[in-house]
Specification:
The longest helix has 22 residues, at about 300-325. This protein has helices at about 40-55, 75-80, 95-105, 135-145, 160-170, 185-190, 205-210, 265-280, 285-295, 300-325, and strands at about 30-35, 60-65, 90, 115-120, 125-130, 150-155, 175-180, 200, 215-220, 230-235, 235, 255-260, 295-300. It has about 325 residues and is an alpha/beta fold. The protein is globular. The chain has two domains: about 10-120 and about 255-325, D-Maltodextrin-Binding Protein, domain 2 (3-Layer(aba) Sandwich); about 125-240, Periplasmic binding protein-like II (D-Maltodextrin-Binding Protein, domain 2, 3-Layer(aba) Sandwich), CATH 3.40.190.10. The strands form three sheets. The chain has a six-stranded mixed beta sheet with strand order 2-1-3-12-4-13, with helices on both faces.
């Protein structure tokens, strides 16, 4: 597979005011978030808002608009109905593939205008630090030997966490009872309270309980380790977490963080935002956010982004179908 990932580096040179474009916004730009307040997409939107303002990357201000109703369908339909409006930009994630399949909403990401992919989320298999199993093998053996299914906490139903849980069952033969919560933070709280045996939270969602010694990271669902080597939990860094494949569990999943405009905008309008978000990925705010959230840096646009989206769509559709989450 072509290596699309490019490390984003801060550079004072590119933080200068953007050059003149054939088109620029003439009113505030709305950053649309398909989730509620405080979630990962909301945090990313606030980071971009600050980066754009502090580094004078755009003359007009940005406004963060939370549209998490109906599990994010509100944001998708809002963007679909805003054809030709270049003053709205969506922070998208795997919801754009999964929700139309599980809820049959009338939406297809191809109806929007892809701008750029700016990050990838990784997922980690977490257990309570007081649990006796300290490796993936020990965890799987305990789950298989348990008279009742291990409880797996996650965010939402028929979404990334649920899909990973379904494939843990297929790969290991163990049984899990998936419990959907409103957020990764709630899933973390349930793990600490021993109300669940495990979760597959993103790194940032379990960071504080990992630092507090309340959670144990067993493996990351990627073909390579998380790159960040700064110690964040005692003497452990994100890079110290082994891959699930290295632990004998060959299962990988990455979630995109991408920017989309509504459909039927002009080429000049799209080009403005491609340039804008490329500059955002080079700001200190982006670099700091990526490391704090343990996100995987990436920058894709144009044909590379379209190719990535088509491949990612096919992967997600296959996973959803195998898990039995596609609505009839």
């Amino acid at each position: 597979m072509r290596n699309f990932v490019k490390a984003a580096a801060a550079s004072a040179v590119i933080l200068a005011a953007a050059p003149a474009h054939a088109w620029e916004p003439t009113k505030p730009v709305e950053i649309v978030v398909a989730a509620g307040a405080g979630g990962a997409s909301d945090q990313m939107a606030r980071m971009m808002q600050a980066a754009i303002q502090k580094n004078n990357l755009m003359k007009q201000p940005t406004v963060v608009s939370l549209k998490g109703g109906a599990s994010g369908a509100e944001a998708l339909i809002y963007m679909k109905s805003s054809e030709g409006d270049p003053n709205k930009v969506l922070i998208a994630y795997s919801l754009i593939y999964m929700l139309p399949l599980s809820a049959k909403i009338p939406f297809n990401w191809r109806e929007l205008t892809p701008v750029s992919v700016i990050a990838l989320d990784q997922f980690v298999l977490w257990t309570n630090a007081s649990a006796p199993y300290k490796t993936v093998k020990e965890f799987v053996e305990a789950a298989k030997a348990s008279p009742t299914p291990f409880k797996m906490g996650g965010t939402g139903s028929k979404r990334e966490d649920h899909v990973l849980t379904a494939f843990l069952e297929k790969k290991t033969g163990a049984k899990f009872a998936y419990l959907p919560y409103k957020s990764g933070g709630e899933a973390a709280t349930q793990l600490v309270g021993n109300h669940t045996e495990a979760n597959v939270n993103n790194p940032s969602e379990n960071l504080e309980i990992w630092r507090a010694g309340q959670a144990r990271a067993l493996c990351v669902f990627d073909k390579e380790r998380i790159s960040y080597k700064t110690k964040v939990a005692g003497d452990l860094s994100w890079n110290d977490i082994p891959t699930c494949k290295d632990e004998g569990l060959d299962l990988q999943y990455l979630m995109l963080r991408a920017m989309f405009l509504p459909g039927k905008v002009t080429a000049e309008q799209k080009d403005f935002y491609v340039d804008l978000f490329e500059k955002v990925t080079r700001t200190p705010e982006y670099k700091d956010y990526m490391e704090k959230q343990a996100l995987k840096p990436i920058l894709l646009f144009g044909k590379d982004m379209t190719r990535f989206l088509e491949d990612d769509d096919a992967i997600n559709k296959s996973l959803m179908t195998e898990a039995g989450f596609v609505a009839n």
